[in-house]
Specification:
The chain is mainly α. The chain has helices spanning 3-17, 19-40, 47-58, 71-119, 126-142.
Length: 143
């Protein structure tokens, strides 16, 4: 399967599961929170520090190198942490969905190729017939 088809399938799954919207809104939320913390938190001196703190808080890593002290900073941290946990918890589901869809597509492609060979059975060479026979035997043994 080509890389382009894999990418299309992945994007399709992201759209179907709503993960694109979730990730987009999370990044917007993270940016707004970083900006607000940069404005109101005395311990956050640069916008980069704001983004770093928001990333650490949203992933619940909590290095402790930057701490918020205001009530607004603490509220933003709690909301961002909950949002980060919800976003991160969706990722394994998307990965499993992608893997499952890839397996289904591969199986479908294999069955389609096999059916095409069956349709032109009289035209197949002895080697191709032998290969099909071996595949059928392996299939029967696997069941």
């Amino acid at each position: 399967m080509s890389l382009k088809r894999k990418f299309k399938r992945f994007v399709s799954i992201l759209k179907h599961t709503g993960m694109i919207q979730m990730l987009s809104s999370f990044l917007i939320c993270l940016s707004i929170a970083a900006f607000l913390l940069f404005l109101w938190e005395p311990g956050i001196k640069t916008i980069g520090d704001g983004f770093w703190y928001c990333f650490v808080a949203s992933t619940t890593i909590g290095f402790g190198d930057i701490c918020v002290t205001t009530v607004l900073g603490k509220i933003i941290t709690v909301l961002l942490s909950v949002y980060g946990i919800l976003t991160a918890s969706m990722i394994p589901g998307v990965v499993v969905t992608y893997y499952t869809e890839s397996l289904k597509a591969r199986e479908s492609e294999t069955i389609t190729a096999f059916m095409e060979k069956l349709e032109r059975l009289p035209e197949l060479s002895k080697e191709e017939l032998e290969e099909m026979s071996q595949r059928v035997k392996k299939f029967k043994e696997g069941k």
